[in-house]
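Extended Data, record ABC transporter ATP-binding protein
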Amino acid sequence: MSEALLEVRDLSVVFDGFRALDGVDLTVERGELRFLIGPNGAGKTTLIDVITGLTRPAGGSVRFEGRDLAGRKEHEIVRMGVGRTFQTSVVFEELTVLENLDLAASFRRPLWSLARRRRGVSDAVAAAMETTQLHALADRPAGVLSHGQRQWLEIGMLIAQGPRLLLLDEPVAGMSGEERQHTGELLTEIAKEHTVIVIEHDMEFLRRYASQVTVLHEGKVLVEGSVDEVRADPRVQEVYLGRTDDTFDPAVAGKTTASAGGGRMAGGPDAGTAIGEGVVAGPGAAGTGTMSGTAAGPVAGSAAAGEVK
Ligand SMILES: Nc1ncnc2c1ncn2[C@@H]1O[C@H](COP(=O)(O)OP(=O)(O)O)[C@@H](O)[C@H]1O
Ligand SMILES: [Mg+2]
């Protein structure tokens, strides 16, 4: 029997007495494109931090390809085949796109191959360039790239490292509609050959590109299923629309959005559905990007407070 690529069991993380993750189970099979969603503070980034060795769990286990990741260092986990992006971009601005990809690719290469003089572009870099379609920008310094292009470069840098599991933390936050679409297509392409976990907030994006979704809420898995199942689940609707405290980012969605006129898709055919087609605001820095340029800001308060004037 083949084992799952990633098996998270009863995982807990405690920060100063606060349970950021509380008994999380997550199984991701080889070849899956799994979306991980949930309100701000749900523990999504923390989960990725534990998988990648950045944060130590208080309990539970993480197995990748059947091997326990407990106690392993970050670089060791990268070498085992787990790659991630961060909510903030980490490209080298003064290096070109090609150099960034090449550097990333060399990270997993054994020393003997680094010492060998290489001609041209390695297969890994060529593949990353192909997947991300960054050819035209190959010789531009990363510093001049648009926000979207930087994100694609980062994804390309991950691919160049040849990971078997990619963890992407809010890749479309702050992107324009066109950039989101490109990213969605990129993810679909990448998922053909990789297993991918994507943290995302934008419900419209989810509806278009996701199949399997895991919803985290207050450190626990709330629901898991297809996009339609998750969207229809009353518990998810409660979490996204029914919160009364302002710790949750505004869910600009469904009825609230339609009434208040915020959100990109407000008034569209689906605007009245639960967790509708509006932009569901992401948290913190990333989420504000999601919201920018929409009339959704002020609506947020209403949505979070559960009232529409
Ligand atoms: N290093 C840390 N120290 C203390 N608390 C943290 C730390 N990292 C995250 N938290 C807290 O853990 C909770 C989950 O955070 P996070 O995983 O970033 O949520 P998400 O990515 O779902 O928005 C939040 O309440 C956050 O404030
Ligand atoms: Mg996060």
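Summary. The chain has two domains: 6-232, 243-309.
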